[in-house]
Write a structure and sequence with these properties.
transmembrane; transmembrane helix; 7-stranded parallel beta sheet; oxidoreductase; about 425 residues; 15 strands; 3-beta hydroxysteroid dehydrogenase/isomerase domain-containing protein; alpha/beta; two-stranded parallel sheet; 3Beta_OHSteriod_DH/Estase
Length: about 425
């Protein structure tokens, strides 16, 4: 079936259009009546949430200004079909970055992006804006302070997501000029805001489990967080710059751009502001990254063994520890100069809006925990003891490095127990209820 597009209609496609930032981009495009929007995503049909159904998106879908198409980027035929008649493609689709599967990330971020580029060239798309990541220049070891786009890709990345994102980004920039296609890459740093399904929900879950009290590292590492509305605004700025023609588009095309709120902040201060705003305690116990790293490696090993049997993706992984303890700030001057980008929402206002949007996650709005918490923590203790004994027998007893590893194991057990015990059952640093 060939999609029919009238001459008066200008269409764009948003791949991964049901993702966090992509939903905000779709709404911005509809609100400003820039294009008719085709949302391309994996689900066979779109399922609108109640507020979407009653809001701008639902109205736009009923009027025909927004269409949904099911498409797997790994299937080139599906990609070509979803791009027919489109003038612009915002390529925002990517797998969950917390899943460290090279096969998955390569199939979407590299092979899928290759299909996106080929489809753009084949059907005559004029502009392609690719959502990349600042992690394409992060080696997982060295902190980054105010880096600009001259910083090269490292010889080794922090994880498979970053490595394949870098490959996809390079393909997009190389494709600039093919059959008249203009491209550029947006590198938004640490996106947050209403509708986020990872950062804030994970923070609250950790707080409710008593695990949000820890600071990995010394707590002084700086970060650039970017409010989601600024991220989608940067995408629109990029599209407008590429569409401008002449010297403006010539300079803007074929480039990558760091996008931030231009307000660096200490990573753990940002987390504390979110937690406090939602009614939870600030993290206060500092754990050196050198202690957390062997625990994270162990957790990753356990996940590799038990993941196929249904174990959830762990939050504590080596790449995550490195992300939480390093500084990562970026210079957005290039985006300002060539795209006309400037944040439209200040950092503190973005934090306030985010907290307000998650009011349902405050302690007073949470259901009471059931008695099975006791059963759950008993299971966790048994698992922890078995793992630590196994680690001791395999690494301490056989290698002779007891002077180094035994303190690490003891510290691991202390921090683990401190994190999993329900508040009324803390043995370490507990306080009586008032």
């Amino acid at each position: 079936m060939v999609m029919e597009v009238t001459e008066k209609e200008r269409w764009c496609v948003v791949t991964g259009g049901r993702g966090f930032a992509a939903r905000h981009l779709v709404e911005m495009l509809v609100r400003h009546e820039m294009f008719h929007v085709r949302i391309a995503d994996l689900a066979p049909a779109i399922q609108l949430e109640a507020h979407e159904e009653a809001g701008l998106l639902g109205e736009a879908m009923r009027s025909g200004r927004v269409h949904y198409v099911s498409a797997d980027l790994r299937d080139k035929a599906q990609v070509i079909k979803s791009f027919q008649g489109a003038e612009v493609v915002f390529h925002m689709a990517a797998p969950d970055s917390s899943i460290n599967s090279y096969k998955l990330h390569y199939s979407v971020n590299v092979q899928g992006t290759t299909n996106v580029i080929d489809a753009c060239v084949e059907v005559g798309v004029k502009r392609l804006i690719y959502t990349s990541s600042p992690s394409v220049v992060f080696d997982g070891v060295n902190s980054i302070l105010n880096a600009n786009e001259t910083m090269p890709y490292p010889s080794k990345h922090n994880d498979s997501y970053s490595a394949t994102k870098a490959e996809g980004e390079a393909l997009v920039m190389k494709a600039n000029g093919r059959n008249g296609l203009l491209t550029c890459c947006i590198r938004p740093s640490s996106i947050f805001g209403p509708g986020d399904r990872l950062l804030v929900p994970s923070l609250v879950a950790a707080a409710r489990a008593g695990k949000s009290k820890f600071i990995i590292g010394d707590g002084s590492n700086l970060y650039d967080f970017t409010y989601v509305e600024n991220v989608v605004h940067a995408h629109v700025c990029a599209e407008r710059a590429l569409a401008s023609g002449g010297e403006v588009s010539a300079k803007a095309a074929g480039q990558a751009y760091f996008i931030t709120n231009m307000e660096p902040i200490k990573f753990w201060e940002f987390m504390s502001l979110l937690l406090e705003g939602l009614g939870y305690d600030r993290p206060s116990i500092k754990i050196p990254a050198i202690i957390m790293m062997p625990i994270a490696h162990l957790v990753e090993l356990v996940y590799k063994l038990l993941g196929p049997y249904g174990m959830k993706v762990p939050q504590l992984t080596p790449s995550r520890v490195r992300l939480l303890s390093c500084s990562r700030t970026f210079d957005s001057s290039k985006a300002k100069d060539l795209l006309g980008y400037a944040p439209v929402v200040p950092l503190q206002e973005g934090i306030k809006r985010t907290i307000d949007s998650f009011a349902h996650l405050t302690p007073q709005n949470q259901p009471k925990k059931e008695v099975n918490d006791r059963v759950q923590w008993k299971k966790q203790i048994v698992i922890a003891i078995v793992i630590l004994i196994t680690l001791y027998l395999n690494f301490v007893a056989t290698t002779g490095y007891s002077a180094i590893l035994i303190p690490v194991l003891v510290a691991s057990m202390i921090f683990f127990f401190r994190g999993i015990f329900p508040e009324k059952m803390k043995l370490l640093g507990s306080k009586k209820d008032d």
